[in-house]
Design a protein that fits this description.
Elements lengths: L3 H20 L3 E2 L9 H15 L5 E13 L6 H11 L6 E5 L2 E10 L2 E11 L2 E10 L4 H17 L3 E12 L5 H13 L5 E7 L3 E7 L5 E5 L2 E3 L1 E8 L4 E8 L7
Antiparallel strand pairs: 1-10, 2-6, 2-7, 3-4, 4-5, 5-6, 7-13, 8-9, 9-12, 10-11, 12-13
Helix pairs in contact: 2-4
InterPro entries: DUF1779
Organism: Paenibacillus ottowii
Pfam families: DUF1779 (PF08680)
């Protein structure tokens, strides 16, 4: 029987691994999208949402993250932060210093949609920009439209940005996490060609990474090309289960 601390550590380790891989950058698969083309970005996102809709449960959380390097080239980072804040309709960005690095941050809450902007100085003359869009099912269409705007704005100012998506659904189910994972895999197999490549399990969680070459986003994970990651997690405190999908990896908590 695994202790709670060990279980949490395992889940956090998997989450951190996914985040590191995404921050390291990912390449596109066979349905290639041009990150600066808002129409292609919208088409790719909608195609992934259609797949996520095939999983059971109620949509609780939809998160899209845009992130990438930005080199000022004599531009003022404060002005750039102000421009992004204006385009995304966010509050004025706060200037902070964390671990000796300058950071511009703004968080906005627009009814069913939350937006977070972070511009972080990684080293002299090099910044990292992250825009996170988060919504429930009600804010889904608004998120898609802002996703298109990010595709336009980030590339127009020279941010080498890529994006990823995570979807979390909740449900009441008598099946174990392993049984629920197998059922969900079976339902998705008819919609997308997928092959399991990596697997993680503990007392309350099953997580699997898949090669699915028809999907638009891809990351190299060890010797495998991964386009999708799925986790089924039992929340014993609230007595329900979560199914989380990440394209190409999960970068949110279960």
């Amino acid at each position: 029987m695994l202790k709670v601390g060990m279980i949490k550590k395992g889940v956090i380790t998997l989450l951190v691994l996914g985040t590191v891989l995404v921050l390291a950058g990912w390449r596109y698969g066979t349905l290639q999208t041009n990150g600066s083309d808002s129409r292609e970005a919208e088409t790719a996102l909608r195609s992934l949402l259609i797949i996520s809709d095939q999983t059971p449960g109620t949509l609780d959380k939809l998160v899209v993250k845009w992130q990438g390097d930005w080199i000022p080239n004599h531009a003022d980072p404060a002005d750039m932060a102000a421009q992004l804040v204006d385009q995304l309709d966010l509050p004025t960005a706060s200037k902070l210093v964390e671990n000796g690095h300058t950071l511009y941050r703004s968080v906005g809450d627009h009814e069913d949609l939350k937006i977070r902007l972070n511009m972080m100085e990684r080293q002299a003359g090099q910044w990292y920009v992250v825009v996170q869009l988060e919504s429930s099912d009600k804010g889904r269409e608004q998120l898609v439209q802002l996703h298109k705007l990010c595709a336009e704005q980030l590339h127009s100012i020279g941010v080498q940005a890529q994006w990823n998506i995570a979807v979390q659904r909740s449900l009441q189910a008598k099946e174990s996490v392993d049984q629920l994972m197998k059922q969900t895999e079976a339902s998705l197999t008819g919609k997308v060609s997928m092959q399991a490549k990596e697997r993680y399990t503990d007392a309350t969680t099953v997580a699997v990474s898949y090669e699915a070459p028809d999907l638009p986003l891809m990351v190299q994970s060890g010797e495998h090309q991964v386009q999708m990651q799925m986790a089924v997690h039992e929340d014993r405190e609230h007595q329900d289960k979560h199914i989380t999908l990440g394209f190409p990896l999960i970068t949110i908590e279960y």
